[in-house]
Amino acid sequence: MRLKDDIAAFLVREFPQTKVTVEAVGGKAATVRHKIGTAELRPGGTVSGPVMMAVADVALYVAILGEIGLEALTVTTNLNINFLRKPSATHDIIGKCTLMKLGKKLVVGEVTIYSEGREEPVAHAVGTYSIPPRKES
Amino acid sequence: MRLKDDIAAFLVREFPQTKVTVEAVGGKAATVRHKIGTAELRPGGTVSGPVMMAVADVALYVAILGEIGLEALTVTTNLNINFLRKPSATHDIIGKCTLMKLGKKLVVGEVTIYSEGREEPVAHAVGTYSIPPRKES
Amino acid sequence: MRLKDDIAAFLVREFPQTKVTVEAVGGKAATVRHKIGTAELRPGGTVSGPVMMAVADVALYVAILGEIGLEALTVTTNLNINFLRKPSATHDIIGKCTLMKLGKKLVVGEVTIYSEGREEPVAHAVGTYSIPPRKES
Amino acid sequence: MRLKDDIAAFLVREFPQTKVTVEAVGGKAATVRHKIGTAELRPGGTVSGPVMMAVADVALYVAILGEIGLEALTVTTNLNINFLRKPSATHDIIGKCTLMKLGKKLVVGEVTIYSEGREEPVAHAVGTYSIPPRKES
């Protein structure tokens, strides 16, 4: 729990505007949540695309922090997202990230995005983060 | 000006939360602006990645509306974004979209994203939108 | 086995140059193989990037044919690939595809690419195919 | 001409199988050509997708070599390609690359791909290469 709490606090500090919260982190993986209210909806009752992009970006960031420690200088270099199905207007968005490569300079991971409680994903993203040179200890 | 005003009004209705505004539209292209204030910044003075993703998404949407008319059912299917340079914390973000393909089912365009007044882009995105079958007139 | 053999024969006809062969297909998934010989290698003993892109493209195509039947007009619209690790020069390349969305117009799937016998993937791709309107039967 | 000839010779050595040739290089840009014959065609008279992916990959590689010098350890980390129109079966494929970012660790560029003599592109790619640490001189 310690790691999760540390990362949650760090996230609030680094991304003060984000509505994404940490559900789980560790083992080269992370799960995050974005509460869905009227501010996230478009007419017709669907979740805005940029909300899902933010979920993908933060899920990757959290999974990486879980491996390399609290490192603000880690930045996204590439994000590719496919929108698969219309999300529910009445359920939170959940993003589940798995890291596929944890290199010295680059980290690559994928994020599957769900409307909570549904089996089929609403979107899928793959992203790359660049990590700064590690400090010697 | 009529087209631009119509699309600007439509955008406010369809994306009520967006802070992106329309600067120009027409000729398979569009320019949009995202005002940058403290709500868009991360500690260290850089613009949040999801802000730039939203600019890319809306720039594409506006350019497409400029060609096919006000069509709410047009949805993003894929967006790929590369982050190139650290954006300025004190200048608005400008997105310039050019459509590369305007098909019956799919539209593909690219968006170059700048900190206003700088020559070198801060990000570059390519996206695909799916458009619903055209109504017979 | 019938489906696999039919698709293997169709693949030879549609992609007469491809060295990719079908290992398994069905259940919204497919596994393909690319034999690696000197023609696929670069100096230093690594497999050429375009070889892995071809594996990704064909793996998606085979998985889709397994669902919609032998349909030559199915075409790639987008492919995004991340190269994760240096492939082995002495093992075949294996691509394992899973379809994430099987829509009426678009199919989206992911492909994890391995050097045979290794646990960690050498590349990962996500692609979209456009499928022609289904014939009424 | 010296730079172009050096890179052309280097390309033959590093990618001994490639059919891509260098047309022009310099100024953070490159133009390459892929001759189209029956070996590149699919039934129905279209150029195979993997041929265009190879053109994109090599165009980026050539543009980068033009900036950093002959460096075999430069490797693709990400490539995203959109297929826009059916290529001609009777014209060579031309790839025109422009680099958008030339960083110390990562280079990002875009490639527009044409059937020679046609105005509208058949495909568009964006790719990232990782470059090894520069040697001190």
Automatic annotation (TrEMBL), chains A, B, C, D:
Entry's Gene Ontology molecular function annotations: thiolester hydrolase activity
InterPro entries recorded: HotDog_dom_sf (IPR029069), Thioestr_dom (IPR006683)
The organism's taxonomic lineage, starting at the top: Bacteria, Pseudomonadati, Bacteroidota, Cytophagia, Cytophagales
Natural source organism: Pontibacter akesuensis
Name the record gives this protein: Uncharacterized domain 1-containing protein
Record domain Thioesterase: where: 44-120
